[in-house]
Amino acid sequence: MAPLSGDGVLWLCLGISLFFAVRGIATDIRQVVDLTEIKRDEREDKIISEGTEEALKLDTLLKLSESTSHDLRAAALRIISERSTKGETRDILLADLSSKNKTRRGKAINALHFLVSNRALSRTSVCTRLRDLPTYTALVNCLCNFLDEHVEITSNTLSPILPRTRPLGEKKAIQILNSLLPENIPCALEAGVVSQWLTRYPFPCVTNADPSRRRDLFMLMKTWWADDAVMSSIFSTLTSHPDGIRQLRKHGLMGSMIEEENDQDDDDGDSDVWMVDGEDTAGTSGTFGSFRSAPRPQESSLEEQALRRRRREAMVLSEGGRPLGRDDIIQRPIQEG
Ligand SMILES: *[C@@H]1O[C@H](CO)[C@@H](O)[C@H](O)[C@H]1NC(C)=O
């Protein structure tokens, strides 16, 4: 195949893929059955084997991606995607991801997000081609570039883990990391996911509180996972690997043995989502015990919600057996206004 060159072609084909992805969503839902059939029946992989894949011209692929046949469309999409994650095209994609130019970066983020999250591509080698050092390095650069953009208040959510200044586009980049991180944790660590990025990330509980409270971040992440499920999932993935734990601890984002023991206590498999589980939280006995397994409040008043939140935080911050004191409660400046 003639290698794709120039980002014009890349964005053309990814743009078209995106268009069909969006258009495809409605039909996707109706065609869940068809999709499962495709999974059982590997025919199309035989028809479009490696040789034929390389021989197909881009225009042909684009025509195929307009086909009314779901199978053909999906196959064309997969080939376009595989092509865009190798060779020169991949280099352009990664360079744009690292770029400080927001237009280029935004396009690269959209393209990569599409590539790693589209179900139709799950059987391709797209993710396996994106689990090397250059990819993780580009992604860490991209995430670090977002750090300087935490300037404007963009959200009203008061949370110990979710900054109110999250810039537009950052979430998508974090989602990409969340998809790619499990592929190769040591490599991502080498690229600086913790040492370059997380250690500088403006988590409210880290920036607002006493520096010695930095190490509570991990516990707060577990308790308040719903405030920022993607970020929590990244922490969950990192702590599934000994090197991840080592680095978080080295950079002071994960603390004492108490947290560690709790990790082992609730070792119930590889669930991606952390449930709030008061049983494992330090200092649950006594007054605050009754708040332990309360569902996220919906019916109660805002005041009650705020109170509960603070108490739950206090529970987490309280260290084994020591009575809770004022210092254990994170006071957020605006909340009590
Ligand atoms: C950013 O990249 C776009 C597209 O490549 C280009 O048109 C634009 O001039 C660049 N902006 C800056 C500030 O360099």
TrEMBL record:
Residues 1-26 form the signal peptide. Residues 260-271 have a biased composition (Acidic residues). Residues 260-337 are annotated as: Disordered. Keywords: Signal. It comes from the Eukaryota. This is Armadillo-like helical. It comes from Penicillium chermesinum.
